[in-house]
Design goal:
This protein has six helices and seven strands. By secondary structure, the protein is α+β, with helices and mostly antiparallel strands. It has two domains: 58 residues; 162 residues, no CATH class. Strands 1, 2, 5 and 6 form a four-stranded antiparallel β-sheet that branches. A hairpin with a 2-residue loop joins strand 3 and strand 4. Helix 2 crosses helix 6. It is rod-shaped, with a radius of gyration of 40 Å. The protein starts with a helix and ends with a strand.
Length: 223
């Protein structure tokens, strides 16, 4: 076999080997790319799954959120301050006056309202469109805080022992304030304040729970 033939055969073998190596490298590169893409897709799927679970995880946190809510809703849930005017007619004989007298007294009252914070006081339910909260209706809690602001005496004669007379009149304010407070607990404005407090407290309670990424719509109502 002459040298030309030998070189030709060797050249063919080298070319075939190079083609094989190139094909192998190409296949390895494609396989690595596909593997990287698959790993990326799996990672993204896992991340998206965690995110999706985070959007619905609140439904698994009802009891834990309820405990936080019970703590945050301790009385008073809402405070309301109102001003009142009290008009008192003073009989001459009773107060030993020289003339009829009328006292116009102005005072403010701070009322506190609360709801039942026992375990049975709140009902939490998860729904497809959000979360529902039912709670007891507000009631007056504690004694209203009464503060005298001013008073004026309308009479043709000077009021003797004015301080004693005013003390007797102001002694009635506490009982009046309690009556006002009981009636106020049914007012829409007071109930709305308590609902708002419950809504804010529940949202805060849910936000504290690990894994919750999305706060649902919350619907608050009374039992």
């Amino acid at each position: 076999m002459d040298s030309v033939t030998i070189f030709f055969i060797v050249g063919c073998l080298l070319t075939a080997a190079m083609v094989y190596v190139v094909v192998q490298v190409k296949h390895f590169g494609e396989a690595k790319t596909m593997s990287d893409q698959l790993l990326k897709a799996q990672t993204e799927a896992s991340t998206n799954k965690k995110k999706l679970l985070g959007y619905t995880h609140y439904a698994d946190c009802l009891e834990a959120s309820k405990l936080v809510l019970m703590e945050q809703m301790k009385a008073p849930v809402a405070k309301v301050v109102r001003e009142y005017v009290h008009v008192a007619q003073l009989p001459k004989d009773e107060f030993k006056l020289k003339a009829e007298a009328t006292v116009i007294a102005t005072y403010t009252v701070e009322f506190g309202f609360g709801v039942d914070t026992s375990p049975s006081g709140f009902e939490l339910t998860a729904a497809a469109n959000g979360m529902g909260l039912k709670m007891s209706r507000p009631t007056l809690v504690g004694e209203p805080v009464v503060k005298a602001v001013s008073h004026r005496v309308v009479s043709s004669a000077e009021l003797v022992e004015e301080k004693a007379v005013m003390a007797q009149i102001q002694a009635k304010f506490a009982e009046l304030a309690r009556r006002y407070g009981v009636a106020m607990s049914t007012e829409p404005a007071v109930q709305a304040l308590c609902k708002l407090k419950a809504l804010e407290s529940l949202r805060d309670a849910l936000a504290r729970q690990p894994g919750v990424r999305h706060l649902p719509g919350i619907f608050v109502d009374f039992k």
